[in-house]
Design a protein that fits this description.
By secondary structure, the protein is mostly beta strands. It is built from two helices and nine strands. Helix content is 12%, strand content 40%. The strands form two sheets. The protein has a six-stranded antiparallel β-sheet with strand order 6-3-8-2-1-9. It comes from Micromonospora echinofusca.
Length: 130
Amino acid sequence: MEHFTIATVAEKSPDFRRVLWTGEHTQLVVMTIPPGGEIGEEVHEDTDQILTFVSGVGEARVAGETKPVAQGDLVVVPAGTKHNFVNTGPNPLVLYTVYGPPEHADQAVHRTRKEADEREAAGQDEPPTA
């Protein structure tokens, strides 16, 4: 059994992205977006994503709509939908997200967005294949 006190685990992670668990159909990831930072506009063609915000404030930009996000908010991003999440506050924007199917390499840790982008571009962040 995997068990996480997820808000605490997310708050303790200083990394931009950290994969906590990868299954055959889903993946659990925590993220910390620094003040003024963002995930970066993207589309996951075949992957649904559910993001739950633990602390901080920001903007969800999904399918051309923009809404504020804060602690306790949840945003669903269906596969094929353009999205970005931006930290608009003075503190880190901390969240956890579930991808279905997995989107990143199992146990991946990306300390910064730059590192995450570089690994993705180099093909070093591919999800496991069944």
